[in-house]
Design the sequence.
DNA sequence: CCTTGACCTTCCAGTTACGGGAACCCTCAT
DNA sequence: ATGAGGGTTCCCGTAACTGGAAGGTCAAGG
């Protein structure tokens, strides 16, 4: 299988696959003409990584997950711990976004959005006046 | 005011302030010895940018917001539109995170997390078996 | 036989918003 | 003179790619 075919099947851009090779996530062989040649196991790894990335795992976490996947003697506790840590990161990000969203949506609501210059969004950013009806 | 003082007051690292100068967000003057000199207006801009960044606006959005702030003839509609676009981005990110969280928290719950190798997290990533009690 | 098109290759640069660290200058106090 | 605590520039590194240039490979068609 050449890179185009793998790209289609794993739904990853060829560029990304080359990058994954560069950082040692996968190690495809080469044909005499220099083309990469992928076996089923490499395709599976790429699909695995694609799913892990879609769940927000970093590349390094993906590397660890691949290693755990390969390891028939792994303890599921190790996988679970990694996933739980990642879950905590996701929750922290969501908290940050929630705070931004709360502030911003209030401001957007409070802003007339007409052709006049008065704007509670700018006032709040400038901190030269209190937000209309809500503490930051 | 030198950079250290501004850094303390605006609660931004000196490095960040130098970077903001480099990209033209602020244009402090210089003393004969080469030190940057900040006036109150520059401090205000930095505080403004600090708050905007905390709300998740990109640097380029901050640049636009600063320009709108400076423009006494702005229409609040322009500010509002920018904020609303950003709000949409925040919501999209939250949706992504929510999806990841839903999948992952189910998997973490389903994983025994003991010393045995069986792990629904890895199985799901490998897609070699259906997740235990939930569709992806 | 030559060309065209669709593949593939490598390499280089750019992205975002800084942080680390080296090497060096300025100023003041001891 | 020296040391502490400012400041300066410059360059590299981060994460995870993406875009683009320049060029090799291969099968089919005229």
Sequence:
């Amino acid at each position: 299988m050449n890179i185009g075919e793998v790209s289609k099947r794993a739904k990853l851009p060829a560029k990304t696959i080359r990058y994954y090779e560069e950082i040692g996530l996968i190690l495809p062989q080469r044909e005499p003409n220099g083309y990469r040649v992928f076996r089923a196991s490499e395709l599976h790894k790429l699909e695995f990584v694609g799913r892990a990335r879609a769940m927000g795992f970093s590349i390094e976490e993906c590397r660890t997950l691949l290693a755990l996947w390969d390891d028939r003697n792994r303890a599921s506790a190790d996988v679970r711990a990694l996933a739980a840590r990642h879950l905590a990161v996701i929750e922290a990000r969501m908290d940050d976004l929630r705070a931004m969203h709360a502030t911003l949506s209030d401001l957007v609501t409070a802003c007339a959005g007409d052709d006049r210059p008065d704007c509670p969004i700018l006032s709040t950013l400038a901190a030269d006046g209190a937000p209309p009806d809500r503490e930051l």
